[in-house]
């Protein structure tokens, strides 16, 4: 630890405290799924309509078992339980004939190839490092541990500006094999997508819930931990197309009648 502190922070912990700062550890949301690992979307009045042939499990998925505040070690259980369930569902769907392999359309890879082509052809663009640093600073200031209405509103605008800058990033190394610069540029695009979803969703949610804590939604008897269940007990759905939001109800009913529903409770630790 001492060696890391000296190397990366320029601080010798024998002589001075190691500087620390809160940062993102886990993303509560993700690709919406059911307990079978099937990806679900709102369709024809059903908020959880399965998408044929599309599955997700682990930390990329949101099966909604953690509520708004995941407990420690539950992520591993999530991966084991829903990874197994998703695998079994894939087998069942194939064996039942629900899934049939179809030829890929001719343009299936066009979007991915266009991302690579832009980086190959971009000149006089912005530094991936500089844009990434601005993204991190924006999220740290405007969507941190404690959130404020004015900063969230400003953050929506700022992260939009960062997203526009990311469209003009360039890399000096154009090689095709083991190109770390290319990987970092592609990862930056993905991170900004998540940052936009986080910022826009947080600004819109006028309450505190789980890890989302607003200073204008204090803990009261009527709204424990700042929750507003009457208006905000619902999932946020963010769409990159149009940077828009939608919502769907939270399912609090267990799969079995033998299990009592887990009531919403105040966090007291």
TrEMBL record:
Alphabetical list of InterPro entries matching this protein: FAD-dep_OxRdtase_2_FAD-bd, FAD/NAD-bd_sf, Fum_R/Succ_DH_flav-like_C_sf, Fum_Rdtase/Succ_DH_flav-like_C, SdhA/FrdA/AprA, Succ_DH/fumarate_Rdtase_cat_sf
Keywords tagged on the record: Electron transport, FAD, Flavoprotein, Membrane, Oxidoreductase, Transport
Ranges of compositional bias, category Basic and acidic residues: 203-217
Record bears the keyword Protein transport: no
Cofactor entry: FAD
Primary residence: membrane
Annotated EC: 1.3.5.1
Positions of region (Disordered): 203-228
Cellular location(s): Cell inner membrane
Coiled coil residues, start to end: none
Any one cellular-component term (Gene Ontology): plasma membrane
Substrates-to-products reaction catalysed: a quinone + succinate = fumarate + a quinol
Membrane topology (UniProt): Peripheral membrane protein
Enzyme kind, highest EC tier: oxidoreductase
Short name of any one Pfam family annotated for the protein: FAD_binding_2
UniProt GO BP: anaerobic respiration
Residues annotated as domain FAD-dependent oxidoreductase 2 FAD-binding: 2-76
Fumarate reductase/succinate dehydrogenase flavoprotein-like C-terminal domain segment(s): 134-269
Molecular-function annotations in GO: electron transfer activity; flavin adenine dinucleotide binding; succinate dehydrogenase (quinone) activity
Family (UniProt): Belongs to the FAD-dependent oxidoreductase 2 family. FRD/SDH subfamily.
PANTHER family reported in the protein's UniProt record: SUCCINATE DEHYDROGENASE 2 FLAVOPROTEIN SUBUNIT, SUCCINATE DEHYDROGENASE [UBIQUINONE] FLAVOPROTEIN SUBUNIT, MITOCHONDRIAL
Record's protein name: succinate dehydrogenase
Lineage: Bacteria, Pseudomonadati, Pseudomonadota, Betaproteobacteria, Rhodocyclales
């Amino acid at each position: 630890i001492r060696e890391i502190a000296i190397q990366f922070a320029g601080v010798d912990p024998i002589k001075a405290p190691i500087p620390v700062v809160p940062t993102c550890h886990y993303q509560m949301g993700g690709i919406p799924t059911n307990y079978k690992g099937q990806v679900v979307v709102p369709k024809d009045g059903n908020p959880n309509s399965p998408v044929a042939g599309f599955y997700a499990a682990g930390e990329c998925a949101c099966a909604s078992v953690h509520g708004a505040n995941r407990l420690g070690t539950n992520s591993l259980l999530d991966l084991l339980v829903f990874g197994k369930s998703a695998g079994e569902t894939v087998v069942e769907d194939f064996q039942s004939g629900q899934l049939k392999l179809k030829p890929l359309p001719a343009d299936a890879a066009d979007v991915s190839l266009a991302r690579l082509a832009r980086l190959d052809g971009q000149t006089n663009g912005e530094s991936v490092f500089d844009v990434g640093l601005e993204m991190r600073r924006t999220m740290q200031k405007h969507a941190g541990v404690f959130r404020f209405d004015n900063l969230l509103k400003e953050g929506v605008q700022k992260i939009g500006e960062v997203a526009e800058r990311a469209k003009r990033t360039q890399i000096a190394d154009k090689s095709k094999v083991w190109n770390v610069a290319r990987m970092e540029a592609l990862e930056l695009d993905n991170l900004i997508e998540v940052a936009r979803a986080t910022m826009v969703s947080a600004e819109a949610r006028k309450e505190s819930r789980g890890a989302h804590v607003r200073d204008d939604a204090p803990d009261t008897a009527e709204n424990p931990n700042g929750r507003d269940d009457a208006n905000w007990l619902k999932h946020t759905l963010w769409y990159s197309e149009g940077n828009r939001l939608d919502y769907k109800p939270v399912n609090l009913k267990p799969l079995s009648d033998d299990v009592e529903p887990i009531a919403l409770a105040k966090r007291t630790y």
